[in-house]
Amino acid sequence: MEQNIEKHTIAVLVDNEPGVLARVIGLFSGRGYNIESLTVAEVDNAAHLSRITLVTSGTRMIVEQIKAQLDRLVPVHKVRDLTDEGPCVERELALIKVAGTGDKRIEALRLADIFHAKVVDATLTSFVFELTGTTSDVNDFVALMTQLGLVEATRTGVVAMAKGQTGF
Amino acid sequence: MSEQKLTGAQIAIKALKDQGVDTIFGYPGGAVLPIYDALFQQNDIRHILVRHEQAAVHAAEGYARSTGKVGCVLVTSGPGATNAVTGLLDALCDSIPIVCLSGQVPTHLIGNDAFQEADTTGITRPVTKHNYLVKDVNDLARTMHEAFYVARTGRPGPVLVDLPKDVQFAEGVYVPPAEVKHKTYRPQTKPEIARVEEAVELMANAKRPIFYTGGGVVNSGTEAARLLTKLVQMTGFPITSTLMGLGAFPASEPQWLGMLGMHGTYEANLAMHGCDVMINIGARFDDRVTGKLSEFSPGSKKIHVDIDPSSINKNVAVDVPVVGDCAAVLEEMIRLWSARQQRNDPAALKDWWKQIDGWRARNCLNYNRSESVIKPQYALERLREALKGKDHYITTEVGQHQMWAAQFLPFDEPNRWMTSGGLGTMGYGLPAAIGAQIAHPDAVVVDVSGEASFLMNMQELGTAVQYRAPVKIFILNNKYMGMVRQWQELLHGSRYSESYSEALPDFVKLAESWNCVGLRATKVEEVDKVIEQMLAVTDRPCIVDIVVDQKENCYPMIPGGKAHNEILFGPEDSPSDATPEDGMVLV
């Protein structure tokens, strides 16, 4: 049996009703599945639909279970495994606060420029950078900033979409 | 057309009526008083007052399982709802369709730690198939109809509707069921034909096939059981079933091998172990059935028919998954099988049956008969004889007596056997028997019980007496939590930690105090007479205290963590190496 741990990005379209997120999260905690990240927001106000993007990992058998279990929840419309279904775009947004003066401050700004991070707040002793990119871009940027006075970081988790013309 | 306004309570009752509900099991309280008031003012729905909310759900399960309808429950907020939790989970584990209405504090008090407030939808989320909190009376009718649809569609299960008291009082518009269509929930019931073709191809080329069927066939309905029987007879294959599936195929047929699993028959388990094609219909490869997963039926191709895609490839990887309702799949299988020219090599099938007959000859359910002490198996054999030809239903509690009942009582029809399989809820049997008896007032309903399990919901005797439900409580009294004692003997050096039933009541006097009939057998020769007396009681409940051998263990037994071919047959098999260390942790 295949025992390799695979990482999958799964998109779930749900009715935006009270308790729906609790059902999804309760499913993961109750059955011992991993959540590496989870994001959720309403995507269709008129139809009351929300889209959840979650990144999870497990053996092939577990990932298939996760999808089947998600699909079984009554308010779930659709479950898509973006990792399985071909190439997809994955992005995260992060806010990263760095404090410091002198060379470190200049270096932080230079690196931010390389990463296409935007300065969204500045004081004489700190910056807040806004960075959008893949998870690994964000990881790399945070690792660099750690050496330059990282104060705090907050990340949205992954949102993702299949490439090409077909929709969800 | 002017729409007539109704109160929330009236809407709830009207929705129940329109859903075909004739009986509801419940217990009143502050937060459901408007519904009880509406119940009082109508005559279509009969309310059965239980003595504890857990029992209301079990009674509804007994009602549902014995009729094929959705069982209905009404409880109050807070403790009413939390008491129902065990019953709801029981129904979830065994896929029993239940709709439970719970009262809730008024919407403006939700979240204020009000009197008898509980986060009922939060607490019951993991123990229901789905649940709802209705905050607007105009959503109530739609929600009620959806609840029934979700409870009975696909893999059935319990659905809870939480109703704040102000919503029960508020006036709103009623919507009939026909106008309600669920937005998202459309389980697949018709199978993909290509998959069924693959399955039939495998079946037709099998040399050592076996049908392994489960509760899904019973849930699918009597038509599914009829089709299963037909297919099994057409193919000539052997068949075994899980605890939950008993009765879907007639136990009196020669192709029936008995139940499989931890306390299943030798022939069923060895046939599962040695088969080359396994046809699982509506069972879920539960750990009680598979034993050690890595050694479960190692040489077989596996077909799995299930209405719930999440049951497929969950525990055991299968070769041909077929998603669909059992009846729909069986119908296709029969059609394809009938149309086929090429079928199994008869010589191979004959050899397979010869091998199976050899295992059967081992007579694995044999036990050491005794003249001096009543063996529990003997009591059940006598019960079996006495029930022959009678319209009867059996429920059980949980433990040794349950396994013995599954081994020794034969079922030729579905919906006759009600037991707590997945959750293993002690205290299930008596309320379930009451539910079955309410649905079938003229039938004989027997709760095969143990003395410890009976104590868990014995307050329900009051319910049985009140509604003149003549349930028979057949207690195999060994003064121990028998299955706990058995495991302690086999796996924990006979250290009987807290498993002795100390301070038992006199069951005959207990029965008499409730104005029931109480009977007792302490000698072998008394068993038949007591059963005869029990069956003669038709106007009130009857408790039968069968004082059985305290040391009797339930065999055959596959200890936790062992494979199907590593079976203990009886006390002569050494328990010392019964369970490997990694098996000890398994329940």
Based on the model shown, name its key terms:
heterodimer, A: 168 residues, alpha+beta, Alpha-Beta Plaits, 2 domains, five-stranded antiparallel sheet, four-stranded antiparallel sheet, 4 helices, B: 587 residues, alpha/beta, Rossmann fold, 3 domains, six-stranded parallel sheet, 24 helices
Describe this structure in words.
The complex is a heterodimer of chains A (168) and B (587). With 168 residues, chain A is α+β, with helices and mostly antiparallel strands. Chain A has 2 domains: 6-81, ACT domain (Alpha-Beta Plaits, 2-Layer Sandwich), CATH 3.30.70; 88-161, ACT-like. Chain A, domain 2 (Alpha-Beta Plaits, 2-Layer Sandwich). Chain A contains 4 helices and 9 strands, in the order βαββαββαββαββ. In chain A, β6 (118-122) and β7 form a beta hairpin. The longest helix of chain A is centred in the middle third of the chain and has 13 residues, at 60-72. Chain A is elongated, with a radius of gyration of 19 Å. The model of chain A has no long low-confidence stretch (mean pLDDT 96). Chain B has 587 residues and is of the alpha/beta class. Chain B has 3 domains: 5-179, Thiamin diphosphate (ThDP)-binding fold, Pyr/PP domains (Rossmann fold); 193-360, TPP-binding domain (Rossmann fold, 3-Layer(aba) Sandwich); 376-547, Thiamin diphosphate (ThDP)-binding fold, Pyr/PP domains (Rossmann fold). Helix content of chain B is 37%, strand content 16%. In chain B, the strands form 4 sheets. A 6-stranded parallel β-sheet of chain B has the order 3-2-4-5-7-6, with helices on both faces. In chain B, strands 11-10-9-12-13-14 form a 6-stranded parallel β-sheet, sandwiched between helices. A 6-stranded parallel β-sheet of chain B has the order 16-15-17-18-20-19, with helices on both faces. The longest helix of chain B is centred in the first third of the chain and has 15 residues, at 53-67. In chain B, 56% of the residues are buried. At the A-B interface, α1 and α2 of A face β6 of B.
